[in-house]
């Protein structure tokens, strides 16, 4: 059965209705089986529908003026157990489940594209901002509370990405540059121990610092073990230092230096900072002398090459690193020239910048021999260009950057692109002396968010633009700054791209 009611809305889009526990059919006086439709008397458009079974509400639907579904609420025995809200383009914006009358948000996507997803057992929370940056939190216990809006505030700064995970026992934060892990901080707490690990990649040398604390059974001071290790580009150890407290409460330290094949060159052992034992390989002096030569090789005990350097007559120096299995993991071609120039001020920067670059081409490979990162440059009379590209394991591009410097005008520009593992563009940035344009795409390659900053003669225009899936603008946040004033404007558009609201 259908029951239609006309109502007048006075400047509001959502009405809340208080309903009795049982709704009766006015004609039969029996509990209603059917639905009630509420319409706007002025427009005659449907705004709310309610479904009833034996007089008890089972579902409620709200609609936009365009006729598109706005929200759906589902009920069991008259009590709400599921609520879904939608944007006007049909995209789900909010999902709540109810247990014992308590709302638990499992998805929340606000009008600015900030998204919070929570698993239904409420132990995993994933936070994503409109630029696509993600934070993941793990909870050991089922916590009944609304998810935090502590969204990753860091904007996408060219080639840098961050990843963060938290649980009750393990926490880590990672920073990637061009898809390569550059920094990591890791902590773990277990039964009777705690561990902290910090990693840093600098000049193609990976440094790892690790501290482990073990609690004694008698609850005395914990035993602490510290380890510092540096690695060559082929994964072999370059340097190692280990410090730990013994059962006699003395401090024991070991320090080793390795060559590129991981052969020990020197070793020193200390007790309470006193040198007790030392070792130096018979070929150590020869190794140091050969490193000063223009051409030399370091081999593994099986005869395979671990490292080789070749110096050409024009001053170009080539280096290559290999694993114990003979796989090439790193190669570079360094030029003797140092490129120096002072480039003009770029948009949103305060002053000119001095650029100093050592000219080189290099490639990095995975242990299976697949290329995963490369740098190269092109130099001609008009410009110099620097390229950086990283790859996924399947060979598709991860990051791609092109930096161009025009020699005559000293103007610099960047173009950076980030792709998904299946080859789809996720985001891009263009930056020169006049503007910064950042674009972010959805999984179907449709533009979902754009941030444009333009510097004009006497003003700066900063505009954040959000899009519907049909490509129409959904929202604009515009800031116009001059030397004397700032003006902020927000514009809201409907699904057809028509301006509905504007305010300062």
Sum this structure up briefly.
This protein has 504 residues and is mostly beta strands.
Total E-strand runs: 37
Secondary-structure class: mainly beta
| Count of DSSP-assigned helices | 1
- Residues in β-strands, percent: over 45%
Distance between the termini: 48 Å
Q: Which ranges are low-confidence, i.e. pLDDT below 50, for 5 or more consecutive residues?
A: 5-19, 142-156
Main sheet: strands, sense, barrel: 21 strands, mixed
The overall pLDDT, averaged over residues, is: 83
Helix content: under 10%
The multimeric state of the shown protein is single chain
What is the alpha-carbon Rg in Å?
32 Å
Task: Characterize the structure shown.
By secondary structure, the chain is mainly beta. The chain is about 0% helix and about 60% strand. It contains one helix and 37 strands. A hairpin with a 2-residue loop joins strand 5 and strand 6. The longest helix has 8 residues, at about 285-290. The chain is extended.
Can you tag this structure with a few keywords?
21-stranded mixed sheet, mainly beta, 1 helix, 59% strand, 504 residues
List strands and helices in order, with pairings.
Layout lengths: L1 E6 L26 E7 L5 E8 L2 E8 L5 E8 L2 E8 L5 E8 L2 E8 L5 E4 L5 E5 L5 E5 L21 E7 L3 E8 L2 E11 L2 E10 L2 E10 L8 E9 L5 E9 L5 E8 L5 E8 L2 E7 L3 H8 L4 E4 L5 E7 L5 E6 L5 E16 L9 E13 L5 E9 L3 E9 L5 E10 L4 E9 L5 E7 L3 E7 L5 E9 L4 E8 L5 E9 L4 E8 L5 E5 L1
Parallel strand pairs: 1-2, 11-12
Antiparallel strand pairs: 2-3, 3-4, 4-5, 5-6, 6-7, 7-8, 8-9, 9-10, 10-11, 12-13, 13-14, 14-15, 15-16, 16-17, 17-18, 18-19, 19-20, 20-21, 22-23, 23-24, 24-25, 25-26, 26-27, 27-28, 28-29, 29-30, 30-31, 31-32, 32-33, 33-34, 34-35, 35-36, 36-37
């Amino acid at each position: 059965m259908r029951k239609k009611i006309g109502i007048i809305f006075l400047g509001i889009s959502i009405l809340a209705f208080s309903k009795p526990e049982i709704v009766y059919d006015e004609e039969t006086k029996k509990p209603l089986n059917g639905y009630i439709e509420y319409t706007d008397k002025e427009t005659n458009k449907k705004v709310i529908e309610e479904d009833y079974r034996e007089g008890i509400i089972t579902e409620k639907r709200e609609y936009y003026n365009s006729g598109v579904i706005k929200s759906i609420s589902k009920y069991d025995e008259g009590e709400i157990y599921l609520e879904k809200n939608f944007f006007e383009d049909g995209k789900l914006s909010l999902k709540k489940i109810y247990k014992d009358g308590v709302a638990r948000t499992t998805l929340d996507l606000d009008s600015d594209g900030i998204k919070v997803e929570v698993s239904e057992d409420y132990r995993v929370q994933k936070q994503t901002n409109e630029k696509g940056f993600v934070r993941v939190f793990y909870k050991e216990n089922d916590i009944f509370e609304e998810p935090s809006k502590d969204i990753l505030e860091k904007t996408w700064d060219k080639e840098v990405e961050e990843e963060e995970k938290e649980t009750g026992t393990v926490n880590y934060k990672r920073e990637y540059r061009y898809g390569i892990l550059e920094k990591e901080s890791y902590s773990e707490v277990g039964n009777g121990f705690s561990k902290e690990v910090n990693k840093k990649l600098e000049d193609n040398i990976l440094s790892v610092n690790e501290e482990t604390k073990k609690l004694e059974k008698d609850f005395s001071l914990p035993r602490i073990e510290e380890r510092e290790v540096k690695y060559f580009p082929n994964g072999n150890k370059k340097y190692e230092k280990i410090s730990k407290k013994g059962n006699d409460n003395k401090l024991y330290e070991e320090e080793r230096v390795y060559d590129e094949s991981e052969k020990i060159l020197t070793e020193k052992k200390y007790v309470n900072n006193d040198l007790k034992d030392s070792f130096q390989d018979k070929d150590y002096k020869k190794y140091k002398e050969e490193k000063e030569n223009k051409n030399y090789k370091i081999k593994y005990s099986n005869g395979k090459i671990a490292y080789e350097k070749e110096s050409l007559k024009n001053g170009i120096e080539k280096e290559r690193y290999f694993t114990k299995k003979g796989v090439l993991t790193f190669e570079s071609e360094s030029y003797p020239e140092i490129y120096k120039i002072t480039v003009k001020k770029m948009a949103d920067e305060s002053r000119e910048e001095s650029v100093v670059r050592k000219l080189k081409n290099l490639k990095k490979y995975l242990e299976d021999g697949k290329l995963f990162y490369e740098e190269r440059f092109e130099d001609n009379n008009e410009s110099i260009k620097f390229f950086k590209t990283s790859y996924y394991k399947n060979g598709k591009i991860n990051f791609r950057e092109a930096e161009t410097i025009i020699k005559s005008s000293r103007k610099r520009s960047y173009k950076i692109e980030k792709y998904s593992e299946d080859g789809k563009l996720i985001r891009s940035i263009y930056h020169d002396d006049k503007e910064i344009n950042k674009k972010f795409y959805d999984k179907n390659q449709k533009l979902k968010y754009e941030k444009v900053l333009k510097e004009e003669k006497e003003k700066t225009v900063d505009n954040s633009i959000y899009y519907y899936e049909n490509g129409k603008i959904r929202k604009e946040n515009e800031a116009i700054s001059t030397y004397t004033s700032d003006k902020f404007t927000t514009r809201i558009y409907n699904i057809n791209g028509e301006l509905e609201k504007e305010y300062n």
